[in-house]
Amino acid sequence: MRLCVTILFCVLFGLVAEGHPQSAKIVGDTLVWWPRDFRGEAVVPSDVRHIGSDAFSSCVELTSVSFPECLETIGSLAFSGCDRLGEVNVPASVTNIGRSAFFNCRTLTNVAIRAKIRMLPDNLCSLCFGLSHVELPDGLSEIGDMAFRGCRSLHNIDIPSSVRRFGRGAFVGCSRLSGIELPRCMETVDDFAFHGCYDLKRLVLHSVPEKIGTGAFRDCHKLRGYVLSADSRTNALYSLSSSGEILVENMCSETGLIGKYE
After folding, report:
1. Alpha-carbon distance 115 to 71, whole Å?
2. How far apart are CA 256 and CA 240, in angstroms?
3. What angle do CA 112, 114, 120 make, to 5 degrees?
4. Number of C-alpha atoms within 13 angstroms, CB side, residue 171?
5. Mean pLDDT, range 144-168, rounded to an integer
6. Whole-prediction pTM value?
7. Residues 50-65 pLDDT 10s
């Protein structure tokens, strides 16, 4: 009898509320703080429109999160250090994601971003060592600096045709990335964008970007070919071996723009 009363008391006062504990702090329509000792799947309340900076940071036993369809923003570092977070689905209602939102989520494997955003923020999934699948939204124009730094389980990624810029170190250290296709409208591949992508064998260029930064493809040992001529493209690709392939479609006619590795 005493046990039943205790359980009823806990339920009534929200101490055993599945998915959204009463101890979570919500101010207006903003989720400010989630208890750090929470275990399992978090269900963000349906009336929350904003997840604040650091709201779930270091919730090391959080395994998944369910977002409401009315969610509009996810703050900086919101889920950083959530070591057991396995999958994230960002709904189309989201219009802003802060930098490093999923930084250092070491076992995160799948990220689907359907948000209506133009820029993928800096360090978004940096050091997510287990990340193997990423879905990016149509209309995205820029992948921010170090967005996928050190995602060493990422084998391939489909880049939306709207993307115009890869930020500095966007894919640095993605050592298992095997192929990448640059959109036709690509303007900038910034410094060290693919530095250390040791397994990168297949690079598809539909046109030559206006800028290929220093060391953009440095230490991509399995690529064959390199970019010559314009100053901004000089030394863009380093340490190329005789294996792999570079495919070129509708390439600009600039003399010597693409040279084979000798």
Report:
1. 10
2. 17
3. 85
4. 30
5. 96
6. 0.83
7. 999 999 999 999 999 9
